Amino acid sequence: MITVNEGSVKIQVPDFSRVSSKAPVFYNPDMEFNRDVSVLALQVFQRMVDRAIKVADTFAGSGIRAIRYLKEVNGVAEAWANDINPLAVECIERNSRMNSVSPLVSREDAGVFLRSNQGVFDFIDVDPFGTPAPFMDSAAAAIRNRSMIGVTATDTSGLCGTYVKPCLRKYSSRPLKTEYCHEIGVRILAGFTAMNLARYRKGSEFLLSHSTRHYMRLYVMVRRGARRADESLKNIGFILHCFSCLFHGHVNGFTPINMKCPSCGRELDVAGPLWVGDIQDAGFIGSMIEEAENKKLNQKEKVLRLLQTCIKEAGMPPGFYDVHELCSSMGVSAPPIDSVMDHLRGDGFRVSRTHFKPTGIKTDADLGAVKDAIKGSLI
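Below the sequence we write its predicted structure tokens.
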């Protein structure tokens, strides 16, 4: 066993020299960043709803999430730590005693655990090793009104289009391997989450979404009501992409129209169905940035860099342009990205960087205007 310090807690876990789902008790040190962001998101959510909250970690492993929520988030009345592994349950209980907290420990299959506690939780954390798809129906059924779900997916090869068939099987959506494939993957996960919630007459509002290293993560505000569910489904649609000229766009609705590229006339490829609405909420993320100043986080600087980029993405349309990819297709050297952005702003367009890719820009400008901005930056 080794001792790990994370946030304001200290736990003991088996040596994690090799992260594996077959480990005696699962603990992933690379997910400390994920947990740091989760602590901030949960605190802001608790202040939004202004009540004592009950939270559930459905795949608790070492118990680190539930323990951190109890220690670091004000207003958490109960934290459940569930894991089907009996060794994990022992580890959770030992680590809880080390930190003088008392999460409610459960040893159940995640789906059974959620189904047997419907309407109990204000926040459900679904963070499995792999895809969350088999558990999202249970999470959608269990979550109460005015609540939040945190969803993590580590099966990024399918969501990003490297392997199409697994994505179709798990998420009933077609991915595309484009320069913005990680955003497409996040939007597939968001659409899948929203459609599961809508089945139980619950609407979705995405507060923060990010793709970091080997995983994707969503924070979803849930409100009950058939009308809210119907409004959410209006944000389901498809992303359209041209592999010839790199045009991209999107359409709303469940039936995509066979379309030709408005730029070069080639047939467009389609990704979806997926979420084409907002995936970042500027107000929520701004509150997270403020909250970070009050928290002890080992990875605070990295967390703040992510949040400061995500807040700029709020309100931007789906997809982005990779300036280097566009310059390559145009046969020109890539100018400074800031110069391209300045030209677009000068022409009256909105533009921002994106956390999905350092060479990408989000903008409401069309492909022609972006190419003109690149040419103008070369003069």
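Residues 312 and 352 are 6 Å apart (CA to CA).
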